[in-house]
Specification:
Distance between the termini: 91 Å
Oligomer: single chain
Structural class: mainly alpha
Radius of gyration: 28 Å
Number of strands: 0
Length: 65
């Protein structure tokens, strides 16, 4: 039982160091994900605009005939 206490302390220290080291990495990854989502949304909105313009062109050309 006495041997478990140092083992638990060592494991706690390892997890603490791991958390401190990788918390910065996790925040960087979150920021990258947000940027990718913003770019995706911009691309989707531009695609929607292009689609609507194309559809308007199609209907305009058909009504003119």
């Amino acid at each position: 039982m006495i041997f478990l206490i140092p083992l638990l302390i060592i494991i706690g220290v390892i997890f603490g160091i791991d958390h401190l080291y990788f918390s910065d990495e996790n925040s960087k990854i979150e920021i990258q994900k947000e940027i990718k989502q913003e770019i995706k949304q911009e691309m989707n909105s531009s695609l929607k605009d292009e689609r609507s313009k194309y559809i308007e062109k199609l209907f305009d050309s058909k009504t003119k005939q």
